[in-house]
């Protein structure tokens, strides 16, 4: 029994240094003298290590309130075809720098470590902030360096190009099952998409499939209900200006819920973007109109006595994907009508 207080004391003393270190605030940067650039860093993506940025970029003051900042750094991301990530860093000038905005990009590779990515981000953030910091009193103490590549490295370095040519791919699969003596439920859903977006052309291709089965044991018999659906969708629009594009879309689908053994739709499309397509990673609001022709083959005869028919419809779709200093919006609204 006499050993217990000793063991507890040793365990407690072993924990104290760790707890103390966790509560020690990070030392303020050397530039924190009141004349440095005030920065609000808005970065919640993988690789955003604020403590690391604070130690690597010391010529600015970091603030917690966006309205107190001279520059708001907004970081957004999107996946690349090779499995990496493209970071778009928007430097938004405020107060004395109001209206002075700039955008830089950094692309990470799938094989790069977390440390390599955060160092690349820190280097890009530093490069973007220098243009503002040199106009502050602290700018006189900023020195700019350049690590020139050696001649051997320049000769050995291959020309960098995007092997995937702006294509990005996504694959998804999920399922759920549950049951007991009287009830069984199974749900499986899969998807695949391939997308390519440039300032000149946007191509989207997607495949979706859904299967659901419910079985009920009623004692003398078992009742089973099935629901299946699948679809293939494609869209191709070419830019005809900074904010207009035209093209077409098509789809092939089937659904037991909608009594459709086969549905084929082909439609021209015209799209207006409220913002230039070059800003798509930060803000994108589009209005798309598609008049289309539909061929429908029904599984069972409809209440109107139809087993198949051809219909003309039109659709209007408003979609928004916005990431701004005040927050983010991701939504779409669609209305359709048979003519």
Number of strands: 14
| Quaternary state of the chains | single chain
Sheet-strand content, in percent, reads over 45%
Backbone CA Rg: 28 Å
Overall structural class, as computed from helix and strand content, comes to: alpha+beta
Number of helices: 4
Uncertain parts? 1-32
- Overall residue-averaged pLDDT value: 81
The overall number of domains is 2
> How do the helices and strands follow one another from N- to C-terminus?
HEHEEEEHHEEEEEEEEE
Helix proportion of residues, in percent?
Answer: 10-25%
Q: What does this protein look like?
A:
By secondary structure, this protein is of the alpha+beta class. Helix content is 16%, strand content 50%. The chain contains 4 helices and 14 strands. The strands form 2 sheets. It has a 9-stranded antiparallel sheet with strand order 6-7-8-9-10-11-12-13-14, with no helix packed on it. A hairpin with a 7-residue loop joins strand 4 and strand 5 (101-108). The longest helix has 21 residues, at 3-23. The radius of gyration is 28 Å and the shape is elongated. The model is unreliable at 1-32 (pLDDT under 50).
Short précis:
With 339 residues, the protein is of the alpha+beta class.
Please specify the SSE layout and strand pairing.
Blueprint: H1 3-23, E1 37-42, H2 50-56, E2 60-62, E3 71-79, E4 85-93, E5 101-108, H3 114-133, H4 151-156, E6 167-179, E7 183-197, E8 201-217, E9 222-239, E10 244-255, E11 260-273, E12 283-298, E13 308-324, E14 327-338
Parallel strand pairs: 1-2, 1-3
Antiparallel strand pairs: 3-4, 4-5, 6-7, 7-8, 8-9, 9-10, 10-11, 11-12, 12-13, 13-14
């Amino acid at each position: 029994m006499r050993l217990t207080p000793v063991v507890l004391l040793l365990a407690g003393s072993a924990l104290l240094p760790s707890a103390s270190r966790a509560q020690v605030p990070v030392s303020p940067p050397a530039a924190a003298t009141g004349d440095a650039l005030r920065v609000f860093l808005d970065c919640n993506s993988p690789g955003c290590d604020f403590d690391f940025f604070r130690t690597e970029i010391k010529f600015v003051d970091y603030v917690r309130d966006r309205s107190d900042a001279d520059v708001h750094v907004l970081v957004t991301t999107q996946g690349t075809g090779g499995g990496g990530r493209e970071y778009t860093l928007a430097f938004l000038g405020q107060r004395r720098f109001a209206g002075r905005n700039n955008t830089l990009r950094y692309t990470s590779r799938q094989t790069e470590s977390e440390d390599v990515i955060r160092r690349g981000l820190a280097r890009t953030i530093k490069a973007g902030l220098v243009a503002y910091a040199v106009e502050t009193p602290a700018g006189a103490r900023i020195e700019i360096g350049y690590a020139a590549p050696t001649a051997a490295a320049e000769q050995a370095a291959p020309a960098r190009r995007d092997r995937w040519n702006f294509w990005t791919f996504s694959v998804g699969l999920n399922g759920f099952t549950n049951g007991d003596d009287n009830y069984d439920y199974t749900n499986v859903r899969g998807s695949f998409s391939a997308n390519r977006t440039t300032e000149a052309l946007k191509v989207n291709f997607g495949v979706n499939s859904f299967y659901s089965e419910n079985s009920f044991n009623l004692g003398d018999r078992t009742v089973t209900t099935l629901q299946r659906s699948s679809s293939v969708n494609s869209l191709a629009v070419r830019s005809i200006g900074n904010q207009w594009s035209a093209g077409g879309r098509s789809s092939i689908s089937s659904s037991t819920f909608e009594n459709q053994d086969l549905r084929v739709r082909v439609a021209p499309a015209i799209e207006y973007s409220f913002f230039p397509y070059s800003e798509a990673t930060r803000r994108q609001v589009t209005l798309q109109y598609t008049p289309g022709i539909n061929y429908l083959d029904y599984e069972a005869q409809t209440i109107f006595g139809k087993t198949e028919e051809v219909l003309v419809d039109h659709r209007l779709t408003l979609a928004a994907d916005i990431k701004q200093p005040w927050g983010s919006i991701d939504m779409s609204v669609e209305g359709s009508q048979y003519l």
